[in-house]
Amino acid sequence: MDGKTLSLAVVSAGVFAIGLGVLVLHSASAPPPTPKRPEPPPSPASMINSEQRFSVLYYKALVEQDAKSYGVPAPAYEDLLQANPYFDELHDRQRLRLKAPIETRHLRVSLEVSKQTTIIESHSLTTDHFVLRVENRTPLYLAYRIQTVVSDKQKCAMKAELPHNAIAIEPGQTMLRTECIFRKDEAIDITGIEVIELPALSAFYVSRVPPNAVLYDPRTSAGHTPPRGSMCAQTFSWRDIKEGIDRKELGWRDVMDFYARHNCTEYSFFASYRYRGDPTAPLPARSLD
Fold first, then answer.
1. Is residue 179 within 8 Å of 111, Cβ to Cβ?
2. Any idea where the domains of the chain sit in the sequence?
3. With a threshold of 0.85, does the pTM exceed it?
4. How many CB atoms sit inside 10 A of residue 20's CB?
5. DSSP 8-state assignment for residue 172
6. pLDDT band at residue 2, thresholds of 50, 70 and 90?
7. Which is nearest to 174 in space by CA: 162, 192, 182, 159?
8. Could you identify which of 96, 103, 192, 213 might form a hypothetical disulfide with 111, taking C-beta atoms 3.0 to 4.6 angstroms apart as the criterion?
9. Are the C-beta atoms of residues 84 and 202 closer than 8 Å to each other?
10. Could you tell me if 63 and 80 are in contact, meaning their C-beta atoms sit under 8 angstroms apart?
């Protein structure tokens, strides 16, 4: 190696050594990397195991919290243990006629005609509809089910839907639901009326139940809108309900009675539950299977 080449090699090595030294010093003086942000703590609900959830203490606290959220008085635990009065108010099929209301102990039901807007093949159409008017004649909150039939269900498929609470009605409240697009030859009959008297909180609880899961006809309940909160998730328990109904082992009042006492976010109906008549049975209810 000649002198010139050797000199260049020495200079290059010196520059490399200086650069390496600077890098080491910089690394030593640089601040440590920002630590990872800690994960938020789990929600209290996720930390509650099944045994705690079925304790009376947890149940009472949930009732208090829900009542506050809905803006209604919290029912006493002792009151929730009592039977919810049930009434089967119509036994014979009756024809609904315009301006001829049918009255029961709790409800006044009448048929009227009014213009409603529906969508047919992407086109908006305003036309006359048969509308059922349901009036709560009492100072009580009620769960209700009014079953009607039409002469030709297919001809009602494109009717408008009015947002309404298809499951519960407040004291003195009037609820409107569409039955069918108006036709002079259409006949509408009432085949059943059932009612359960409820505490206010219970009315909000049952309003979250999907109507299709508990014997409500999609033709009349498609406009169902809970007044507060979202509808219950359709978990595995809905299969239990359908199978029990198909076998005629369960009825509307059994499912309503369960959800009148239980927040559907926390508790699921189970196949062996029946309308509660024993005030000594514990709450929350749980399957013993």
1. yes
2. 49-259
3. no
4. 10
5. T
6. very low
7. 162
8. 96
9. yes
10. yes
What tokens were used for 152? 């030709």
Q: Which two tokens stand for residue 187?
A: 């006949």
Contact assessment for residue 108 and residue 176, using Cβ atoms and an 8 Å cutoff = no
The values of phi and psi at residue 143, to 5°, are: -90, 140
Say if residues 76 and 60 touch (Cβ distance below 8 Å).
no
**Phi–psi pair at 76, nearest 5 degrees:** -65, 145
Alpha-carbon span 249 to 228, nearest angstrom: 31
User: Measuring CA to CA, which residue among 61, 58, 57, 56 is closest to residue 74?
Assistant: 61
- Sign of the alpha-carbon dihedral angle for 83, 84, 85, 91: negative
- Is 43's pLDDT higher than 70? no
pLDDT digits (tens, 9 = 90+) for 123-165: 788 999 999 999 999 999 999 999 999 998 898 989 999 999 9
The model's pLDDT over 186-242, given as tens digits with 9 standing for 90+, comes to: 999 999 999 999 999 999 999 999 998 888 999 999 999 999 888 998 777 788 888
Share of the chain above pLDDT 90, in %: 66
| Mean residue pLDDT across the chain | 86
DSSP character string of 29-58:
HSPPPPPPPPPPPPPGGGG--HHHHTSHHH
Instruction: Fill in the amino acid letter for 134.
Output: V
Structure tokens belonging to residue 123 = 């086109």
Q: Which helix (H) or strand (E) holds 117?
A: strand 107-120
Give strand pairing partners of 145. Answer: 194
pLDDT of residue 246: 87
Sheet holding 123-136, edge to edge: 102-103, 107-120, 123-136, 174-181
Are 267 and 284 contacting, i.e. CB atoms less than 8 angstroms apart? Answer: yes
Cβ neighbours of 6 (radius 10 Å): 10
- Report the distance separating Cα 181 and Cα 190, nearest Å: 17
Task: Tell which phi-psi region holds residue 215, choosing left (phi > 0), alpha (psi between -120 and 50) or beta.
Answer: left
